[in-house]
Amino acid sequence: MAFDLVAHLGAMTREVHNLEKDGQPAKAVFASRVYDTTPADLWDALTQPERVKRWFAPVSGDLKLGGRYHIEGNASGTVLECEPQKKVALTWEFAGATSWVNLKLTREADGTRLELEHIAHISPHWDQFGPGAVGIGWDLSFMGLARYLADPSFEMPPEAAAEWYGTEEYKTLVRTTGDGWGKADIAAGADRAHALEAAETTIKFYTGEAAPEN
User: Fold this and answer.
1) What residue ranges define each of the domains in the chain, with the CATH number in brackets?
2) Given this model, what pLDDT does residue 161 score?
3) For residues 16 and 29, is the Cβ–Cβ distance under 8 A?
4) How far apart (Å, rounded) are the C-alpha atoms in residues 86 and 46?
5) Percentage of the residues of the chain whose pLDDT score is greater than 70
6) With 90 as the cut, is the pLDDT of residue 203 above it?
7) Other Cβ atoms within 10 Å of 107 Cβ, number
8) What is the pLDDT of residues 107-164, one digit of tens each?
9) Against a cut of 0.90, is the pTM above it?
10) Taking the CB of residue 27, how many other CB atoms lie within 10 A of it?
11) Angle, to 10 degrees, between the axis of helix 132-150 and the axis of helix 39-47?
């Protein structure tokens, strides 16, 4: 069955939150959607290495409270909280910087809602690229999970193939989600012109039209 990208994108919620973390100004990228499955199955898909690699990436380490994890080709970190089928909190250590990721699962009448919050201190990187810098990446993950739950038969995510990044599906996802994160930034109080410029910079980076200066 073909994956309905438009329906998936329409099911997503994107927000930017202004807050403090450890006494410093911070921003949170917040994404959520409801998946047509139970909390137990969704938790299993999020935490079991044999399932995670089929929609996200290979994950190794001590996947329990206080343990260290590593995502192949991506971040590492420590598990700060873990309440099975309800929530997990992690440090997200990537490129010499530490941020924080919180996942929450909530049973709803038609499935299970997954909420993701990625918190980072305000930095020049945020000022240049805005929430889409991490938001588009998380949108890719939400899409991969939706595709996998709809059809668990594939061994590796289709988007793991390099040629997928040249498809119209990929470009549509980047453009739609990049614009969405720009709007979320504006809704959170960012200057409209600056937010739209940052969103466009991020979209062009993800599509290969431009590389970051640093």
Assistant:
1) 5-207 (3.30.530.20)
2) 87
3) yes
4) 11
5) 97
6) yes
7) 13
8) 998 899 999 999 999 999 999 999 999 999 999 999 999 999 999 988 888 888 889 9
9) yes
10) 24
11) 120
Q: Read off the pLDDT of residues 164-180 as tens digits, 9 standing for 90 and up.
A: 999 999 999 999 999 99
Torsion, Cα of 92, 150, 16, 186 (10° steps)? 140
Q: How confident is the model at residue 1 (pLDDT cuts 50, 70, 90)?
A: low
Q: Please tell me the distance from the alpha carbon of residue 161 to that of residue 159, in angstroms, as a whole number.
A: 5
| DSSP secondary structure string for all residues of the chain | ----HHHHHHH-EEEEEEEEETTEEEEEEEEEEEESS-HHHHHHHHH-HHHHTTTS--EEE--STT-EEEETTS-EEEEEEEETTTEEEEEEEETTEEEEEEEEEEEETTEEEEEEEEEEE--HHHHHH-THHHHHHHHHHHHHHHHHHH-TT-SS-GGGSGGGGGSHHHHHHHHHHHHHHHHHHHHTT--HHHHHHHHHHHHHHHHTS-----
Residues 6+ apart with CB under 8 A from 74: 57, 94
